Amino acid sequence: MNNLLLYLGTVAIWGSSWLGIKLQLGHVPPEVSVLYRFVVAAALLLAWCHFRGLNMRFTWRQHVAMAMVGVPLFSLNYIIFYIATIYLTSGLVAVTFSTITVMNIGFGALLIGSPIRPRVAIGALFGLAGLSLVFWPDLAAFDTGSAGLIGLGLSLIATAFASLGNVASARNQRAGIPVMQGNAFGMAYGALCTLIVILARGTPFAFDPSPLYVGGVLYLAVVASIFGFGCYLTLLGRIGADRAAYTSVVFPLVALGLSTIFEGFEWTALAIAGVGLILIGNVIVLAKVGRAPARSAA
């Protein structure tokens, strides 16, 4: 699959995953829902790897490296974001998460020596500005009180964890760890981390047998986790964490489109202008995505 299809697949899948997350909201604690999602995803992906006869023998150092992807990317960032939504609107959370484009540039340069591409930085700023316009009503209503500051801080911490997982995955791919097996073990380690958090916090286990909840778990586990992360992390290994992270600025627009259909979202002049800025940034960042050279064995 070429890079453009990987990019479009990531945007489409993660843009629609917000509906699956909404189906999970209810009497089941957020971290328990995260646990269900990645237990199912890890089990299916590990079984698929064994069925395909893929190499599943890795050194303990490689397992540590895969855990360094799984813990921040498949556990901590999801748990913290779920908690952050208690304090912030979804629009502000989306705006905050889009800062991963900038974080990936910084962490990539700091931790694995990735070059800072001026074009990517400029495109990311266009995207952040555009997304801010799309969610301007939420930004204008932002309360600088303690609850708002807590939510903003949690969202930034969660985004930082996601960015660290991105950079760790890029490093692992450069070291020859395949995406499929790396994701399988990473999700397993992420689920284990989530279980530890649940037990440490004394969070009660609960389950909703309704078709909506079960369907949401399966969609997030199979489509959003297995296929979504498979596309994204493969793309990340090929074109770098900085350019791949731009999907996080674009996929909220897919979520807005679905919200227009299913939730009655109304487009404003600011929202349309924001979409225009995001598309401009998208062109700046991804103009040569289809011809980007492979960076790893992935």
If you had to describe this structure to a student in words, what would you say it looks like?
The protein is mostly helical. The chain has one domain (3-291). It is built from 13 helices and no strands. The longest helix is centred in the middle third of the chain and has 29 residues, at 146-174. The model is unreliable at 289-298 (pLDDT under 50).
Strand content: under 5%
Radius of gyration: 18 Å
Mean pLDDT: 84
| Helix fraction bin | over 70%
Essential attributes:
298 residues; mainly alpha; 13 helices; globular; disordered C terminus
Layout of strands and helices, then pairs:
Blueprint: H1 3-24, H2 30-51, H3 60-84, H4 90-97, H5 100-111, H6 118-134, H7 136-140, H8 146-174, H9 179-201, H10 211-239, H11 241-244, H12 247-262, H13 269-286
Short description:
By secondary structure, the protein is an all-alpha fold. Helices cover 77% and strands 0% of the residues. It has helices at 3-24, 30-51, 60-84, 90-97, 100-111, 118-134, 136-140, 146-174, 179-201, 211-239, 241-244, 247-262, 269-286.
